[in-house]
Amino acid sequence: MSLSLLQPSFLMSKTRSYAKIFIGSRLFLTAMAIHLSLRVAPLDLQQGGNSRIPYVHVPVARMSILVYIATAINTFLFLLTKHPLFLRSFGTGTEMGAFSTLFTLVTGGFRGRPMWGTFWVWDARLTSVKPI
């Protein structure tokens, strides 16, 4: 019985049936999180609405890193086992990682413009080291 659970046809049929539910719930929860963080979160006294952007920017940045790590692990497991379930997550993982990275860059730019007067500061010394 336990060996039949590891058969690719059984696992692929189960993941195919649950994939729509997981994708739909993920999209719904993501939309709710963005709505709550950008619309419902209270304003900061000094920064105003700009204080809400890190509620989206930081989780998306962490998500992009985690998605790329999970994709790398799944790709490594596919190379070891040749199980098609591990290969299935490769295309979706890279697309989600690229979207999360793009979203991180966009929200980071919107955070930088009101705070520092420019969207990007490419010189790290300008932001991290204060002159004596």
Write the layout of secondary structure elements.
Layout: H1 2-5, H2 8-40, H3 54-81, H4 84-116, H5 124-128
Number of domains: 1
Tally of strands: 0
Give the termini separation: 71 Å
Uncertain parts: none
What is the gist of this entry?
Its main location: membrane. With 132 residues, the chain is an all-alpha fold.
Summary tags:
132 residues, mainly alpha, elongated, Cyt_c_biogenesis_CcsA/CcmC, cytochrome c-type biogenesis, Cytochrome c assembly protein
What would your notes on this structure say?
The chain is mainly alpha-helical and 132 residues long. It has one domain (20-42, 49-120). Helix content is 78%, strand content 0%. The chain is built from 5 helices and no strands. The chain has helices at residues 2-5, 8-40, 54-81, 84-116, 124-128. It is elongated. The model has no long low-confidence stretch (mean pLDDT 79). The chain crosses the membrane at residues 21-40, 60-80. Its main location: membrane. Residues 5-128 form the Cytochrome c assembly protein domain.
